[in-house]
Structures are given as structure tokens and as C-alpha cells.
């Protein structure tokens, strides 16, 4: 199983609660069970442990934590790939000539698969410049839930687009 490492950009459970991704009660239960950061929650889940087995953790808390895992799972793990460890702009500059056009076309194809709400929120936040959209999508510090009119479902859709873009780039760089 893949382990998620704690980094400076890792969210604390308090930050997750403040941004209303989990309740403060869930944050307190995480803290009481030794899970201080998002990476701790993801590692616990990746090891196959069940949240409802934690002390004072009921169904509602377990569901909140599973929801957080489903939103953030692809973000952290997908960037463990060696070819994407570099700064996003460096990765884009490594692309062969004409690859950016293919990447833009693939990005448009992926956007056809997501909901209108997710698409509109993304375009409102970034604009219509395809290169900026791609850089934004590949930037591992981007938290989609912080965008206006983005909920958990839309964030999950955008995370999946990010994973697909990274997979596509990795295939092209082989």
C-alpha cells in the first residue's frame, strides 16, 4: 500500500473543519485518535483500517472521514510519481513540441465528462486560457473545495480530471 507523507502543505484536521469539509467533532475525534493531518487520515484509510472502529467514532464521523479520503486520495498519491515531482511549469516545459496542443485537446475532452457546475466554477476561477487551466489543474497545492460553488461532488470530479491529466502526461513522457 502507498503511504502518504506529511508535508508543509498538508492540511491539519482543524483546517479541514474550518473549511467545513469535516465537522469540529470529527476533527476532535481525529486528534484524540492521533490523526493530526490529512496525511494521517489517508494513511489510516490506505492501511485498510476502518474509521468506525476508532474510539468514540460513529457512523456519521466515519462517513465524513471516508468522504474526505475520496476527495483527497488521488491528489496526494498521484503526485508521488517521479515524473511529476518537479514543479508543474517544469513538467509542462519538458513536453515535446506540439504536446501542449494535444494536452489542451485532451483537457477539453475530460471537461466534457464533468458536470456543468464543476466546469463553470473552474472557468469562473481561472478564465478561458487553456494553459492556465492546465497549470491550475496540475498544481498539487490547488484545493478545489476552496473554489466558489464547488462542493464535494464537484471537487471529486475535478480531482479525477487531475489524475487523468497526470496519467496522460506520464504516458506521453515515457
Keywords for this entry:
elongated, mainly alpha, 9 helices, 174 residues
Explain what this protein looks like in three dimensions.
It contains 9 helices and no strands. The protein has 174 residues and is mostly helical. It has 2 domains: 13-78; 85-173, no CATH class. Helix 3 (38-46) crosses helix 4 (59-78). The two termini are 24 Å apart.
Question: What would a concise description of this structure say?
Answer:
The chain is mostly helical and 174 residues long. It has helices spanning 13-18, 24-32, 38-46, 59-78, 88-94, 99-111, 116-126, 130-138, 152-173.
Structurally, how many domains make up the residues?
2
Mean pLDDT: 77
- Tell me the structural class: mainly alpha
Shape type? elongated
Quick one: biggest sheet?
Answer: none
